[in-house]
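Researcher: Here's a chain I'd like modeled. Treat it as a single chain, no partners, no ligands.
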Amino acid sequence: MAPDAGPARPAYRRIVLKLSGEALAGDQGYGIDPPVLDRVAAEMRDVLELGVQVGIVIGGGNIFGGVAASAGGMDRATADYMGMLATIINALALQDALEKAGLQTRVLSAIEMRAVAEPYIRRRAIRHLEKGRVIIFAAGTGNPFFTTDTAGALRAVEIGADVIMKATKVDGVYSADPKRDPSATRLPRLTYIEALNQGLQVMDTTAISLCMNNKLPIVVFDLTRSGNIKRIVAGENVGSIVS
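Model: Modeled as a single isolated chain. Structure tokens:
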């Protein structure tokens, strides 16, 4: 492209980024690592400058893991509700970082908590996006027994996103766990059925099925490499795409 041709048109108009709580913990493994928040905020600013609308679904595993607690004997529904509340803590921290980076941000919670977040209303969420605000979807789906992966897929489909981008610590989907199996190969493209049948760690089965039924592509990418979100939005082949 000629240097004076201006920025290319982004590959996606509206995205949902699925961030795990563990991603926010960074290398410390627990809690919230401020440099990670700052880096995500800087990347979001770059993406918004391309004219892309951004929704973020956040997990809570860095503070409280519902599945782990229920495995330890806690009632699963109670553990899941506690996990949803953990996502609200993360959402407020991320909102603060995004606003420090100069971005207008709204937290929309599936569990009503009017003092700190707006209730999730689909049409209001879409309106915020159209006004150029970043929206953070907190409290998962608002229901126990559903993961934040499923919440990400659900919100992405509801608001008419073009893609759901799942941020991980590896550079895509592998045929096996690359840490345990040195022969594991990266799969740049795969189908929903392949991901489901082979039990690949893309998202949980409910989330993949929801994406498959609504033809919503999933991009799995490495969040730890700076600039990856912008690269994907610009249409570069980063990570793995499930479609």
